[in-house]
Amino acid sequence: MAHCAGSLGLEVLGEHPRVASVHPLVSLPDAEVGADRLVGAWFAVSGDVVVGEVVAALGGTPVSVASDRRAAYHAAAAVASNHLVALLAEVERIADVAGVPLDAYLGLVRGTVDNVAAMGVREALTGPVARGDWETVRAHLDAIGPDERDEYLAGLAATARLAGRGAVGVVAAAGRALTGRCAPQAGERRGGRRILRTGLCAEAG
Question: How far apart are CA 177 and CA 175, in angstroms?
Fold first, then answer.
């Protein structure tokens, strides 16, 4: 007996003598597309060896994921797929302000994913945060609507973390930039914590 749930372990199958799980690491929007994508896909497997035979028959790549790690595995899958769709919805909304269709950005998205595959996430990072261009970040915040700023700032924090620029300080400085308050000087202490100047407020001094 096997299940295909990504977040569940083998315990949900009870006391059956042969239990296994096999979860395809692909997006399956409908049966026809899903059938094509299963061929050659990655699969999270555990339990009975029969699931390895299933993966082999599909020309796939198995990766063993223990029951106590399935939720973390599935959370990463949700970020990779579901959160990406939500992020592209944000792209579509902001691009609409500029009169540019979402299709114009999809080549950029595909190229970025190719860069990650070829170079890894850190080396693939480009853009204003990676190069410390805080004037451009401030221009972005000025240009997008208030309804988009929370999502933009969340992405800014994640990008700053990857770039090693201190996510909390960058987002706090972005908030000050929006309200006309400047980023603190390097070395200034507030609440017992050292805060670094980010450059989002060029007039800070």
Answer: 5
